[in-house]
Write a structure and sequence with these properties.
The chain has about 190 residues and is of the alpha/beta class. The protein has a single domain, classed as P-loop containing nucleotide triphosphate hydrolases (Rossmann fold, 3-Layer(aba) Sandwich). About 40% of the residues lie in helices and about 20% in strands. It is built from 7 helices and 9 strands, in the order βαβββαββαβαβααβα. It has a 5-stranded parallel β-sheet with strand order 2-7-1-8-9, sandwiched between helices. Helix 1 crosses helix 7. The longest helix is centred in the last third of the chain and has 15 residues. The radius of gyration is 16 Å and the shape is globular.
Length: about 190
């Protein structure tokens, strides 16, 4: 079953591995175009404008919002704003590319309103215990932040029925291949 190229939205709870699965797809499936977000966050060392993010001033970002040029956007952690430019997604689809948009639940809900015929895939952990292990194991958040993210994770897991498909991230390669298959592409041996 081959699906026509289009937009696939990947979302799921915090620490489920959305970024890891997306990176695997970028590295192994060059025919998939991964959307690059716009952000008001300043570049980190080594980050390149237009490759990692489209870096915008607050005023530039606000103008994009006002002009309706974003598929979705949100203020993250009360600080910086992130969003997906409609123009870049539309251009990739017009070129016949399969587009993967890796975003949070709030963004996925906005895209569903804007592009209801997109495909929505929920990336789920093998178990709640595994999600907790991954979040705590990262060691990138304080205990307080971990607890806040786990509370958010419970709410995010409850949103699974809103999605067209669920992929269990029990193995990054297997999950990436399943996602690519849902996008209508043939997984290849690695």
């Amino acid at each position: 079953m081959s699906k026509k190229p289009g937009l696939t939205v990947l979302a799921g709870p915090t620490a489920v591995g959305k970024g890891t699965v997306s990176t695997y797809i970028r590295d192994h499936y060059p025919e998939v175009w991964l959307s690059v977000s716009a952000t008001t966050r300043p570049p980190r060392p080594g980050e390149i404008d237009g490759v990692h993010y489209y870096f915008k001033s607050k005023e530039e970002f606000d103008a994009l919002v006002a002009a309706g040029e974003l598929l979705e956007w949100a203020v993250v952690h009360g600080q910086n704003t992130y969003g997906t430019l409609k123009s870049t997604v539309d251009a990739a689809i017009a070129e016949g590319r399969s587009v993967l948009l890796e975003i949070d639940l709030q963004g996925a809900r906005q895209v569903k309103k804007a592009v209801p015929d997109a495909q929505f895939v929920f990336l789920a952990p093998p178990s709640w215990e595994e999600l907790v292990r991954r979040l705590v194991g990262r060691g990138t958040e304080s205990a307080e932040e971990q607890q806040r993210r786990l509370e958010t994770g419970k709410v995010e897991l409850a949103a699974e029925p809103e999605f067209d498909h669920t992929v269990i991230n029990d193995d990054v390669r297997r999950a990436a291949d399943e996602l690519v298959s849902l996008m209508g592409l043939t997984p290849r041996p690695h």
